[in-house]
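LAB NOTEBOOK - FOLDING QUEUE
OPERATOR: T.R.
BATCH SIZE: 2
PURPOSE: Compare the predicted structure-token outputs for two unrelated chains run back to back under identical settings.
PRIORITY: normal
REVIEWER: second-year student, initials M.K.

ITEM 1
FIELD SEQUENCE / FIELD STRUCTURE:
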Amino acid sequence: MPVKSYKPYTPSRRQMTTSDFSDLTTSRPEKRLTKGLRKNGGRNNTGRITVRHIGGGHKRAYRYIDFKRNKFGVPGTVKTIEYDPNRSARIALVFYADGDKRYILQPAGLKVGETIMSGPGAEIKVGNALPLINIPDGSFVHNIEIVVGRGGQMVRSAGGQAQLMGKDAGYAQIKLPSGEIRIVPDRCLATLGQVSNVDNESIVLGNAGRSRRLGRRPHVRGTAMNSCDHPMGGGRGKSKGGNHPRSPWNQLAKGLKTRNPKKVWGWMVVRDRRKANKSQG
């Protein structure tokens, strides 16, 4: 999917890039597989802001995505490749042989008219979903389950792919895009191939308006605030000393470990992503 640039008739236009959307085959979603999406502005069920810098944005409809891929043994034909405003990847509308219609994450290279299938007996090809135990070692996969039957939870964003390193004693070792290696039950499903829209990381928004249409509000530096608003605020002029970088709630922002290794998923991490990045550097 090529990236489109523009003539610099304004300063922001010089850096701006967009997708040319040449890979899409329709502009209208399947109405039965959508619902209205109500915005929450980063607030939880009690009305408190729990995620800052969220609000506004363009009106969207949510597309129901089949992350479970549980239509075992039923072949499906790809009918359309569509844009999804709720995620960075493209989605594909699949018509199954039993008359069912579902959206799936489009793997890179999957085209309209191709047939896909799920289940242990599916062929080893891009777009098919199989248990990890049935996938050859070294294969690249995405939309990986953590719990059998729950649906894919890992490696779902544009261009993402994880590598199956090996299988042993009922578990499979997976190397994630971050470099982290973790184990998951080898009965968990994964989809072969790389997630579509690989060039998404090359997109440059270019101006503030595009960011606001995505629902992203301005992010203000703590040092630019008053001392009553942020631990790093206040002072006469710029001040960098006297206080380590921290959040508005006085949580240290660099180096403090906030992950609880005793939680249920901690034992699944074989190699932490931070250690992996250090060894690569």
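ITEM 2
FIELD SEQUENCE / FIELD STRUCTURE:
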Amino acid sequence: MKYQLLTYRTGTGEAAAGILVKNAVYDVAALPGLGHCVTMMDVLNDWGKTERLLQDAAKNIDASAAVGQPLDDVELLAPIPNPGAVYLCGANYTDHIDEMRPLLKDLPPDIAERELVGDEPWHLISTVRGSIVGPGAMVQKPRGSQRLDWEIELAVVIGITARGVPAERALEYVAGYTICNDLSARDLSIRPEVHDAMPFRVDWTEHKCFDGSLPCGPWITPASQISNPQQLGLKLWVNDQLMQDSSTDQMVFSVQEQIAKLSINRTLYPGDIILTGTPAGVGAGRGVFLKAGDTVRMGIESIGELEHSIT
């Protein structure tokens, strides 16, 4: 039985874990054996047990006359409002690398892809509180930015503590997948007063870690419902104009390879999120950027759609 996991705002204003079955939302903590799962982090911290209980609950809900809250009547929050860590994979789609080549100064036209991205995936780490926002969020443009860009990304949610994980077993540690827009203030990434030979000239904090920089949602699709995360279509629209239209099969480094690399020198914990890169179609490649009043809509096959606006 298919189901999704989400976080919603209760009538008292609290964030609670919910399960979506056939367009209705049910309180996870009210389900048999799941009374301790008030929040999504509660669900993920005990994923080895809760996954089975959630599967059973979804089947029972489907077979019964249970009545949940209609999805349209529920205020959705980011699936994991406060994850422990968010890792951002850079330059990880072949089609995106190709579209960005003309923007790189003094780059030989015949340079090999591996010379641009290396032999292993590399990641940035983002702020969490303030950066993570949910479906329908109104994201304020960072002060001083005129080149705010969009980047749809498949987001991987860790469900089991992982350290030193081999790539061939990496998917065993994944609880599920969601959608994220890794917004980028491209014109705030360089400190122009600093000499271009200095390694401290790049300012990734201003580029990536502003309030609302990571719209996320609308829910988590369990990994058991996605047979191959490298075969998912991704699309992003700005004001109903299709901008990104690609597939996760364009990744340079797979989900498994990213988990394996990250877990070499650090422990990945339940609730950590890995953003796996963005495909071609970003604003920088076409000289078009987000402005106040724009609406951004994203969809990933087998997961759903996420929408937010710019103010």
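REVIEWER COMMENT (ITEM 2): The longest helix spans residues 47-63.
FOLLOW-UP: none requested
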